[in-house]
Amino acid sequence: MTTQHRPTFPITALILLLCTPVAAWWLIGDLTGDEARRLAAEGVELDYAIRPVSLGPAGDRIVGVLACVGVVLALAWLLRVTARRSLDRRWWWVLAPLVAAGALLGLAWRVLTAGGIGANIGAGLMLIVGGPALAVLLIVAAVAALRMRRHRPSRAPQHSE
Question: Is 97 exposed, middle or buried (0-12, 13-18, 19+ CB in 10 A)?
């Protein structure tokens, strides 16, 4: 008799949290403006806050699609076990801000790696606004996790006399 091993919550949550920024990065796409693209085609060197990393069009597409599949499958499994009441609904107070933080990281990476001529104003704004927003999301997730830990039901057996 073979035993089936279902994905566990920590592994599925980890897949969701690792795939979210990559999926957001791929879905958002390159944010280099049309004028900058035109100038780059004419041979002008673009300025970058951070130089983008690429595996080429095919490699980027494969990584992006795999990340999107990972997000969809992980979310589907987590929603399923939540609906079946196998997963405490309070975990969503931890997961939701972490997923939002991942999406923000994907957006931030695209903004910081956008090519342009001169200063990348979006990069500065992303750091000024996105940094504190990211901090708030991480704090909300940490507080929710701590509250769950504090209000965890006791596992000690009940004794009746």
Answer: buried
Crossing angle, helix 92-112 and helix 9-28, to 10 degrees?
30
φ, ψ dihedrals at 47, nearest 5°: -100, 145
What pLDDT, in 10s, does the model give residues 101-158?
999 999 999 999 888 887 788 888 999 999 999 999 999 999 999 998 887 655 544 4
Residue 40, CA atoms < 13 Å, CB-side half-sphere: 14
Distance between CA atoms of 72 and 77, rounded to whole angstroms? 9
Is the whole-model pTM more than 0.85?
no
Judged by DSSP in three states, 47 sits in: strand
Digit-coded pLDDT (tens) for 59-101: 999 999 999 999 999 999 999 988 888 878 888 999 999 999 9
Q: Are 28 and 110 in contact (CB under 8 A)?
A: yes
Nearest to 21 by CA among 141, 91, 102, 129: 102
CA–CA gap between residue 81 and residue 33 (Å, rounded): 43
